[in-house]
Amino acid sequence: MEQNHTHAGTRQGDPAGLAPFIFLFIVIGTFFVWCCCVGAWLARLWYYDGQLHKKFRKYDIQPIYIRERLAKEQELKRRESQKIVEITNWSQDVTTMSFERVQEFDSASLRQRIFEDKRISRLPAFEQDDGGDGSEFPDMPVDMTAKEYNEQHFPAQSTSFWEIGLSKMPGDDWLTYHNNEQMMARDQILDDQQRRENCIDMRPGREVEEMCGELWQEVAKFIRAKHPARFWEQTEDGVKKLFDQQTGEAFPLEGPFGWLTLDTMARLVCEDFCIFKKSPFSGQYTLMAGATCFPSGWRFKARIGHSVDSQQETILPWENLTDILSYMGEHGDNSAYERHVIFIQTARPYETDLVKKYFVQEGKDFFSGNISFLQPETLHARIERQMFRKLPATGAIVMTTRMQIESLVLMEEDKLRQVGREIRSWPAHIGRLKGRDLWGRAVLGYIEEFPMAHDDESVFDAGDMTEEEEEEEEV
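Predicted structure:
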């Protein structure tokens, strides 16, 4: 009976009897893993010639179009960095580089960097800066005050007004309101919330509010004296107001002044307003506030708060504006000056979309249609009459712009000839920006009574062309 029991236990499997087999399996498995690791190390040593800590080759498994795009971006960055290195190695300082020279660079980031260097170069230098008024460092005087810096680097100009393209303006021709088409266009623009925000804006601060208030007082005083039958002043509930008999509206003449004041002026007269003030730190004139419903190829919202010289894009109606504002700021008289800026745009003879006709924020919007649209009936002269006057109390300078869009076929001959002379007097780069290469043949051909051109041959008389135009024709 005992022998049978022992035989049955052996048959069922004793754990103590399996231990050698389990140990042998672990040893074999460990040896196999060790051989695999040693083999991998040996293969790695053979592949990398015994160097296990060098910068190993990486394989690019990205699609071909991604690799080509990354290669182009790296090449563009390399070229831009090379241009920056060349800029820093120039003998000429980039802060003295002209605006036209900077515009020749293809890289937008490079142009932005140069403009930023020009802006920083105009800031005043101090010996120390405690983030306040210097009271914490009484023994360390300021190296140069902002006023001294501006007098040294931005001296007063003695140029007369006619040398910068200005003429004296009669005092009784500042504002108008009787142009029904323009007033209708202004209402359509200002009734649209998005366009309204792009037309009216101001910098925060009490100083800017005082500028807007002083301008509003001047506007109300002028139209009240110019048109006493329609506008007069009256007191209502203890508040002085300007009453408009035609519309029945009353506008407060007392503060607070701000955004609604600019909106009131934009709806009351046909002119646009831009208020500039000289910064005491940079010595540059900055656009502080304004109401501009009829821009000519520029965006008012993008310019508010920026100085006239710090623009990265050319604003054609602002050509030579820095010299004009400097002249106005240096002369403390109450004289008003004016100048005219001419553009050419296309519009249907009886254009019903007045917003499209007057509200032009980009240069390409001056031309609508195709080449066949360039006919005398659709060509219009867009003439800006810019009037400058200095506010006596705040010292701000106001640029008032009156727009006139007139078809070439309806213009008087003397005025038409004057437009032609103005177009021919533009420098080559101004002509390109204003689109003379596009409509020049059609406009000048009509004004100078040359036959219209329908092929690639020029209609200009070679004897009447300037040297710059002859070079362009040869190219």
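Summary: The beta strands are 167-168, 200-202, 231-236, 239-244, 250-252, 272-278, 285-291, 337-346, 379-390, 397-407.
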